[in-house]
Amino acid sequence: MTDTLISTLLSGIVLGSLYALMASGLSLVWTTLGVFNFAHGALMMIGAFVAWTVSEGMGMGLAAGLVAGVGVAALLGVIIEFLLVRPFYGKPNMLLITVMTTLAAMIILEKSAQIIWGARLKQLPRLIEGEVSVLGAVISAHEALIIVIAPLILVALWLFATRTATGRSLRAVGQNQDAAALLGINVPLTFALAFGLGAALAGLTGVLLGGVRFITPSLGVEPLVKAMIVVIFGGLGSLGATVGAAFVIGLAEAFLILALGLYWTPFVLFLGLIIVLIFRPNGLFGRA
Question: When comparing pLDDT for 37 and 137, which is higher?
Answer without folding.
Answer: 37
